[in-house]
Protein 1
Amino acid sequence: MNILVFIKQVPDTNEVRIDPKTGTLIREGVPSIINPDDKNAIEEALRIKEEVGAKVTVVTMGPPQAEKALREALAMGVDEAVLLTDRAFAGADTWATSLVLAKAAEKLGYDLIFAGRQAIDGDTAQVGPEIAEHLNLPQVTYVEKVEVLDGEVRVRRALEDGYETLRVKLPCLLTCIKELNNPRYMNIYDIFTCYSKEIKVMGLSDLGLQKEEVGLIGSPTKVKKSFTKGPKAQGEKFDLPPHEAANIITEKLKGMHLI
Amino acid sequence: MDFSLTREQQLAKEMFEKFVENEVRPIASEIDETERFPIETVKKMGKLGMMGIPFEREVGGAGGDFITYIMAVEELAKACATTSVILSAHTSLCCWPIYTFGTDEQKAKYLPKLLKGEYLGAFALTEPNAGTDAASQQTTARLEGDYYILNGSKVFITNGGYADVFIVFAMTDRSKGTKGISAFIVEKGFEGFSIGKIEEKMGIRASSTAELIFKDCKVPKENLLGKEGMGFKIAMATLDGGRIGIAAQALGIAEGALNEAIKYMKERKQFGKPIATFQGLQFYIAEMATKVEAARNLVYKAAWKKQTGQNYSMDASMAKLYASETAMEVTTKAVQIFGGYGYTKDYPVERMMRDAKITEIYEGTSEVQKMVISANILK
């Protein structure tokens, strides 16, 4: 079984500060990490490999520095790593990104694809589902349990107030949440061999894509402005029994013509 | 001259830091309090290759290097000195002598399991009457047929209560003095071998410091390590390397206490402002940080010399002497910075201060290190 795991290198948001003037992230000096949900994806792929046997390939799109995230995945025990990098990919939104990743999946071949639910820098949760759409694959999001059966997987999908269990035919794409497992640490054996392994690098032409389809040009999303919401005033406080408080709220809302 | 870590060492450091935050720091205070040996941590370290870092994969090791091993001891010690000495005694004092002096058969039999952490190792030299005077061994070994018969006892043996494999020193020929000492690989469960008293200690309280008793203990003669009479040489060579491990432990303890002190100084307010704004305490921090940095340079230089095949005996002693005295001084100052709170178990610095003391004593006291250093200089 060929398992692909799509990962993203993100700034460690625990250490990120926001520039109060521009409202953008200050990335200088902030360590880069593998996106946390993606680590759950790697762990699940490795667990399945240990359980039923599989080749696990980890794939990322990013600048050349994203190699560090791939080395870290190799140091956790994945078999192969692929870096999708090209100047033309820069500035991609989730659509353009997922197109590149889907093309890579087609080139690499797969039986099962894992992705993290969402990245801590963008929080869109769109890339995984969009890859599945590009590839016309069944997908399950918010996966918290996976069982590999014959030619299919049984997965548990977390809902706000419960969960649903689904059986999905392979090939399919699953997006992982942190409840799925505890990602393993890197280990000394793989740390000391991960830099001698070859990382496959693929660019625009390797994927058979055109410039217009990728990067900023291929991105339908346009960011008009990003800003930090100003602090709100404290508001009025009433310490009253519930019945009277409800009346006050109703009056206030009526006064604002909201109800 | 290059002080930077390799890419592999950098990844390993990240891994150790995460492991320590998740697996070691959360239980450090509990195992100190209850004197519970953290066997589960040992097993976890084994799976990650941490119990065999500086040994090649061909012999069952993790294929890392000596500096990475030293880094592991240091990172563990920042949060828990007990866990760091378990790793250090296992790697430096048991795996290393088997790797260095063992026959192919001995290596094949013991190293794969030791280096994967399936077996835990220990080193048994000290006796009730042979501490710093290690040469006056009273444990004896005599050859009878296919077995050496060991009689005597050892004390203060780190990992003692939980180890599977022990490097044990005994007199095979008293008339030859130090040249009459031999080393043996003894397994837990050998007939006539038992564990005696487990010491209650001031610091590193969970590390299982045990007495070993040998009563007509039968050790197969193929378990003689090196040749008869080589024991003292093996012990001294082993301790040279072990000292870098203890120096790294001391360095880690000092760094751990320094980090706690820095954090506390920024939080704690007196006279309406953080105590970090008071120059008296700022000077403490400056001195502590400078000594820690000096200790780090001595420790890593000794480790680098060992890794690159240079003579490191004096460097190891200097590193151990300075790092252990720094650990004692820095942890004591950290308690002072914390004031009354530092003297309580609400904060980890009192434990760090208790833990630091042993680094000035075991694997050669500070006084022994000075003897080694001066002997190297004045020879």
Protein 2
Amino acid sequence: MKPYYRGIKLIKRQVLNIQVPEPGSSDNINKNENIILEFSNVEKTFFEGRLKDYALKNISLGVKRGIITGLIGPDGAGKTTLMRLAAGLLTPDTGQISALGMDVTSDYPAIQATIGYMPQRFGLYEDLSVQENLELYADLHSIPEKSRPSRYQELMKMTGLAPFTSRLAGRLSGGMKQKLGLACTLIHTPRLLLLDEPTVGVDPLSRRELWNIVQHMVKEEGTSVLLSTAYMDEAERCEEVVLLYEGKMLGNAPPGQFKQHLNGKSYIVSVSGIKKRPVQEKIADYPSVIDAVLKGGGIRVVLDVESPPNIEKLLPGVKGVSIEPTPPSLEDSFISILRSRQKKNERTGKKPSRIDVRYQLDNSNENVIKVTGVKRRFGDFYAVKGVTFEVRRGEVFGLLGANGAGKSTTFRMLCGLLPASEGTMRVAGADLRDAPAEARSHIGYMSQKFSLYGSLSVKQNLLFFSSAYGLSGSNRGARIKWALDEFDLLQLADSNSIDLSLGYKQRLAMACALMHHPDILFLDEPTSGVDPIARREFWSRINSLAEEGVTIMVTTHFMEEAEYCDRLAIMADGEILALGTPEEIKAGQQSSDNPDPNMEDAFISLITGKENENS
Amino acid sequence: MRANNMVIQSKSAQHGSSILRMRGLIRKEFLQILRDPSSIAIAFLMPVFLLLLFGYGVSLDAEHVPVAVVVEDPSLDTANFTSGFYGSRYFNPVTVRDIGTAEQELRNHSVDAIIYLRSDVARQLRSPEGAHIQVIINGVDANNGRIISGYVQGIWSKWLGNRALARGEKINLPVKVEQRVWFNRELRSKNFLVPGLIAIIMTLIGALLTALVVAREWERGTMEAIMVTPVTIRELLLGKILPYFILGIGGMGLTVAMAVWLFDVPIRGSLWLVFVTSSLFMFAALGMGLFISSVTKNQFVAGQVAIIATFLPAFILSGFIFDIGSMPWMIQMLTHVIAARYFVAILQTLFLAGNIWSVVIPNCLALIVMGVFFIGLTWKRSVKRLG
């Protein structure tokens, strides 16, 4: 916890100059347990054709005045439906919703006039400038002309958008758009603020700035906030957390209370001198282990029993291992709650078996990707300004960076989708300039949007992709059978892929990318929006692929996923700012202010360092 | 500090100014129109393009029709007859030696008709049975064929008359037809195409553009954001109708100016009546556009529906090109639900005939009914809700 808050203070001074509440300070406000938004026995169903689909089942909760309440849960849990119900944009089938002392269902125009609501994709008018967007919302809220200039100034200062007031909203970066959206929502200083995943797809730096603005509103204006998020670290910053899963509420309590049941069940296993990934796989297979993930220099383990584990039993015959207890995190709690639910529903969490590869591991020091001095120019603009790195066989290599840092361009060049303007790129021994087709036959690519054919069934998708990769006859049949079996898709073989849940879509997309036994797998933000259980399964598959000698290159916005990588490169403005193992990168950003930075701290410190250098 | 804010807030929620909100919405809409090249293109470039295309490219008049004239045995009589073709602006005759070549030319479309005078035509002319002149017309385009046939007959009867006159004889025709063409004396097809085209263009601006821009707000999520503000449905609808009404009237002015100055279409009715009736039509078209987008909420679908439900019917069933009177009765019934039909009738009357109230008033009433129906329906359907 400690270094976390230090990180915020750091930003406070550097970027925004906003007072950040101390962890305990808001307790004084919520002593009077005033409820500003209340759901009682709310149900909401949608019809998908003739199928009745529960979006929310029997929800009762109270959002308290003057604090930030976090709404957490994976995609499809019903977060957006709940937000829209609270904003009076949807009507509940049964149950009652009241906000600010009014009934939301009947008094919705009054509710809509009073609250602040920021939908997931905040509807900015992209062909209007920052100032014009603000003016529109000022007009809509009838802000008196006299008080406008000072209000605009205040909001622009708070969001750091002051230098960009005449820029068209469509030309802003993702993070800046979200900040402008928030500024428009805050123009009339609402008492209740509903924010639907305000930080999704936003880089860590902008995420911190958004949080600072929200916390400022809570502290200075007494605003009450309901904020939905998929990031566990954000949930930790809320005073109160509501956990939604498949339309049901699994809990509503302060984060500390959520974690209580895991006291004495969370441990860090440190290893030295051996590869961490096999150790993690081994621990994850152990019966009483709920969760085992790579974290920092070791492996974070959550058990379902309170006795400290016997390291000899856990890892028989492995040397150089030590185990230490650690305070439980909200993510530990979330995973354990979800896992126990899944057991109740008797859903099988099939562990991936070893995936076969064409080339067996022969030389682990062989570089399969070699990028030297690569630049990419679009007109006068350099999206990538000379990057050099190498990736070894069987390595999991992460590419991190804010929106517009040049990640996607680098990725597209490596996949042979975009030629480099300068420099050389060798992939699986083939030069991308001379033999792009040869290089491409060694590559599997899974895009962020999964690129599946929605109206084709699972099987037809597999058939199509295997044919596209040149597989045919019995070879193809065997491969499809393998994919259905391996990814647990057999029962869904004839369902249209558009009807699959996000987690299954992701599995199918990965299966499609693996049909031709690629040596290198490119994954472009493969886990955004996928629930944590599915995410763990996904990483477990990646791990076993890497163990088999498949080289994995991945981009991600999740800082904890960066820790799962063997090595990573942090990019900004088309350059690589840091390259190395997660430990090396974190160690490189140690300072007297922050002797033990986590990945997010390191990332932000690198990016702000770069920005200061530029200005 | 906090309490203060609450008071201000609740006051402004109750006494928020509708005028201020409307001003914001309308200003936003105009900024978007100015900055979005596609709106400008639909509102101004497309009308100009269509008007030029139809004004210059499409003509229902048959002029300079290429005909092959085959005279097997030229004589003074035949020369007398064929001179009628050479002197006419409707025909471009070419002399061909034999019928075989002429047929070949008809087949490869270098001529549209053949006038065939056999070798015995001069002799036949002097016999009591009279002469046979063969006329072969390319009938693929029936309309064109009919026009050519009429022209040939005209030349023939003129020649007959002249011939009788020259001989001092009287031809005895039982009925003499004296033709007078009203309203469009020169029978220029432009004079009636261009006013109809204006109605089509207005349908395009009114229905297609509104359908697209409202659907765009749903698609981009701006509608969801704007709903959770004090704005009312009435303000949202007016905020769309007024800017596009002004844009539509602007497009109207442009096309009327082009019609008068570029295409020399006479305008015999009053300009103010043109303005009033187009305003009525604009409301009906905007209403349809709003209704379509409130149902589809998706730009692509809204565009498709708008084209299929408003633009194409306006093109085919409004009487702009195809005469409604000659359609089967079922289709004629169908044309009554096409708003453009009434507007085409009004505009053709106002341009070519003048303020004929017995035409203008019933058609205006029909437009009012349609406008009220569609805007009312959209209003009723619209709630500040998503589901």
